[in-house]
Write a structure and sequence with these properties.
Elements: H1 2-14, H2 20-31, H3 36-43, H4 49-86, H5 103-116, E1 121-122, E2 128-130, H6 131-134, E3 161-163, H7 168-177, E4 182-191, E5 203-213, H8 218-233, E6 239-246, E7 249-258, E8 275-284, H9 286-291, E9 300-307, H10 308-316, H11 329-332
Helix pairs in contact: 1-4, 2-4, 5-10
The structure holds 3,4-dihydroxyphenylalanine.
The site of 3,4-dihydroxyphenylalanine has 11 residues, from strand 8 and strand 9.
């Protein structure tokens, strides 16, 4: 029996195991119930009692070595198989869900891009503002209805601190801090105390534009806006300026573009007029320049402001404003490669 054990021991020590099949062969031969080691243990009863101690020890060594070899190799074979699977370059990869830009960001970036080609740079200001920057410096009369509690969210108990109702407040901050020439666009979120519906929301986004220099004229404004409309909505787009009123511009206008759905023919979207309104604009009122520390005898300027939701709706026909803030990925995913 001793000879058999020694023989098996050397066989086990020199065994080569390279894969799962060989590992299983090893297990069956030595470690299974009908394997060599079990047979030896069964035969142990017949060993003469004076040899039992020595043979028992040898048998234990044999069993331990066989088990150790088995577990060492099962680990190794397992690792190698995983490595082999991972490095199979012909396997298809796991697909990764890539996020998409929000439609408002897509359109905002496009607007910034168009104006940056004309030399405009981006400025931003705070969403929590004071009365001076949102109203007073912009020439709003003391009793103007826009200051009313119905439109404006006031913060704290002081009527002086509020959520900006338009991005025109950023104009004031820039004019107070920079000397002309000033050529900037100011994207940002604004807030109004409105009931939320498909057509109105208590917050939305605007892009404001401001250009101040020597001899800036209404013709410059018109040409800039025509360029913008054609870049944004296509080379065939026409524009139309209608006289309007804003406290901070004089003269003031609202701009329509030829309906981009029917090409100006008239449809339900443009209420059969062929035109849709997209922004407000005008020449910066000399009072505003003076309040912000700019000499109105030396400089003139134009300004304009548009709603990003409005432009986005015109581009993508989103029917319900609430979609923009509901974070439904089924809605958001549609715009990934739009522009
Ligand atoms: N601030 C205006 C609004 O929120 C939009 C606007 C109109 C901005 C005329 C301008 C402008 O800069 O010149 O309705």
């Amino acid at each position: 029996m001793k000879d058999k054990i020694t023989y098996l021991l050397s066989e086990i020590r020199s065994a080569q195991i390279a894969n799962k099949a060989q590992l299983e062969e090893f297990r069956l031969k030595y470690l299974s119930k009908k394997g060599e080691i079990s047979i030896l243990f069964d035969g142990f009863k017949q060993v003469l009692s004076d040899q039992k101690k020595e043979v028992g020890q040898l048998l234990n060594v044999l069993k331990t070595e066989a088990q150790e070899k088995f577990s060492a190799f099962s680990q190794k074979v397992e690792n190698e198989e995983t490595v082999n699977v991972k490095s199979d370059l012909t396997m298809p990869g796991d697909s990764i869900e890539v996020g998409s830009r929000h439609p408002l960001s897509i359109v905002k970036n496009e607007i910034i891009d168009i104006f940056s080609r004309l030399g405009f740079t981006v400025s931003e200001g705070p969403e929590i503002e004071d009365d001076w920057h949102v109203f007073t410096a912009l020439n709003f009369p003391e009793e103007h209805p826009a200051r009313d509690m119905q439109d404006t969210f006031f913060i704290e108990k002081s009527p002086d601190i509020l959520l900006r109702t338009h991005t025109s407040s950023v104009q004031v901050r820039v004019m107070e801090n920079q000397k002309p020439p000033i050529r900037i666009i100011m994207p940002g979120r604004v807030f109004r105390n409105e009931a939320i519906s498909a057509r109105a929301h208590c917050f939305f986004h605007q892009v404001e534009g401001l250009y101040i220099d020597h001899h800036v004229s209404f013709a410059d404004l018109k040409q800039t806006l025509l360029y913008f409309a054609r870049e944004m909505f296509g080379a065939e787009t026409k524009i139309r300026l209608r006289p309007s009123y804003f406290p901070f511009t004089e003269p003031s206008a609202e701009m329509d573009i030829s309906c981009n759905l029917c090409g100006g023919e008239g449809c339900a979207f443009c209420k059969h007029t062929g035109w849709v309104e997209i922004l407000g604009c005008g020449m910066v009122d000399p009072n505003v320049l003076e309040k912000c520390g700019i000499n109105s005898k030396e400089y003139t300027g134009y300004a304009f402001g548009m709603g990003i939701e409005r432009i986005t709706n015109l581009k993508f026909q989103v029917k319900d404003l609430r979609m923009f803030s509901e974070n439904d990925v089924r809605f958001l995913k549609q715009f990934s490669n739009s522009i």
